[in-house]
Amino acid sequence: MDIQWYPGHMTKAKRQMQEDMKLIDLIIELVDARVPRSSRNPDIDQLGKQKSRLILLNKSDMADERQNQMWLEYFKKQGFYALLADSRNKTTLRSIQPLVAEACKEKLERDARRGIKNRPIRAMVAGIPNVGKSTFINSYAGRACAKTGNRPGVTKGKQWIRLGKGLELLDTPGILWPKFDDPEVGERLAMIGSVRDEILNTEELSLKLIAFLMEAYPGILEGRYALKEEGAPLEILRQIAESRKCLVRGSELSYEKAAGILMDDFRSGKLGRITLEQAPEAQ
Ligand code: GDP
Predict the structure, then answer these.
(1) Using one digit for the tens of pLDDT, what is the confidence trace for 216-264?
(2) Which partner from 30, 84, 256, 275 sits 20 to 30 angstroms from 242, CA to CA?
C-alpha cells in the first residue's frame, strides 16, 4: 500500500521476480476484479512465459457480477486458467484446487516425458501491491503453514508451504509493479485506494468517479445520497456535500469532504458492486 514506485524499486522487484521464476512451475497471478486491466502488469507474460498461469480475479465480492463473468471468459479465451475469488472467504477458495491440479497436470506430463519423477510442483503468488496476495496466501495455505524449510536444492532463505501431495507454495509473494506510464492506470488504482491519495487530488478523482458512475451505473449516486437534480459531476458533488452536510467555516459547502465521503463509500463497497473497467467484448 505504501510502496512508492521509483525506477529503482521497479528494477529491484523485476530482478526478484526473475530470480523467483527460476524456482517455480506455476504462477498464481492476482488481479483486482474491479480493475482487471490496471491491476495487471503485462510484463508478467514475458517473465513467466514458460510457466503455467492461473489468474485469480480477487476481490470479486466487490466487483460487478456480470463483469466478473465477462472478465473470467476473457481471460479463459486468452488461454489462462482463471477463477473468481474473495480471499477473505476461505470457502470460495475451494474451487481453486481442481484448477491448480489441472494447471499442474500439464507440467507433470511434461516432466514425465523428460523422465523427471516425483518432483513437487512449485507455485508462487504474484501481483501488484494491495491486490490481496498476503490475504490469499493466509487463507489458502493458512492451515498448512508448516514450512518445509531449507532443503538441498532449495535456494537458501526461501520458504515453501506444503499444500498437499506434490504441491508447494513460495511463502513470499512476487511483487509486480503497476504500469504507471499509462495515466489511467494510476488514476484507477487511486480510485480503488491502492496508491496513496496524495498522489492524486481526491476532489478530481471523485469527479472522475462521478462521471463514470453516471454513465455506467445510472441511479446509484441518486439512491445513496438522495440527490434531487441531475447535473454535471461538479454539481453532483455539490449536492453530495449538501445532503451529507459537509461544511467548512460554519456554512460553506466543502467539496473536499464530500469527495472524501464518496471515495470512502466506493472503496468500502457501500455504493454496491462496481467494476471500473469493462471486459473487452468476447470475440
Ligand atoms: P497485498 O499487498 O497484495 O499482500 O494485499 P493484502 O493481502 O494486504 O490485502 C490488501 C487489502 O485487501 C486488505 O485490507 C485485505 O483485507 C483486502 N482484501 C484482500 N482480499 C480481498 C478480497 O477478496 N475481497 C475483499 N473485499 N477484500 C480483500
Answers:
(1) 999 999 999 999 888 999 999 999 999 999 999 988 999 999 999 999 9
(2) 275
For residue 209, give its domain range: 201-267
Q: Which atom of ligand 1 is nearest to the CA of 137?
A: 7
Residue ranges of alpha helices (H) inside 48-142 are 65-77, 96-113, 133-141
Q: Is 86 in the pocket of ligand 1 (CB under 6 A)?
A: yes
Specify the amino acid at residue 250: G
Task: Indicate the residue type of 45.
Answer: D
CATH code for the domain of 228? 1.10.1580.10
Task: Dig out the grid coordinates for 9 from the structure.
Answer: 524499486
CA 225 to chain CA mean position, Å: 28
Ligand 1 in reach of 239 Cβ (< 6 A): no
272 is a domain residue = no
pLDDT at 9: 81
30-81 pLDDT, tens digit each: 999 999 999 999 889 999 988 989 999 999 999 999 999 999 999 999 999 9
208 and 254 together in one domain? yes
Residue among 283, 242, 1 at smallest CA distance from 132: 1
Could you give the ipTM of this predicted complex?
Answer: 0.99
Taking a C-beta distance cutoff of 8 angstroms, is the pair 244, 261 a contact? yes
Query: How close is the Cα of 133 to the center of ligand 1, in Å?
Result: 7
